[in-house]
Design goal:
Order of helices and strands: EEHHEEEEE
Structural class: alpha+beta
Low-confidence stretches: none
Radius of gyration: 10 Å
Distance between the termini: 16 Å
Largest sheet: 5 strands, mixed
CATH architecture: Roll
CATH topology: Structural Genomics Hypothetical 15.5 Kd Protein In mrcA-pckA Intergenic Region, Chain A
């Protein structure tokens, strides 16, 4: 199931998104999961910790799907 989240500004950074949603416990854990190739953005493995996510982007991590609106 995919759930929408609204970016707080023009964009939200990938590592912050994982932490804010509680998908990781810390920012450091979020960074490591990204570097380990565990996060998909728009169907592709994303290795940029501070990737700017904008409306329409889809993130998949640990069985969760998030749509940025």
């Amino acid at each position: 199931m995919e759930f929408p989240i609204q970016a707080p500004h023009e964009y939200i950074e990938l590592n912050k998104l994982l932490k804010v949603l509680g998908l990781t416990e810390t920012g450091g854990e979020a960074n490591q999961c990204i570097l380990d190739g565990m996060v998909l953005v728009n169907g592709e493995v994303e290795l940029q910790k501070r990737k700017k996510l904008r409306p329409g982007d889809r993130v998949e991590f640990d069985g969760e799907k998030v749509l940025i609106v």
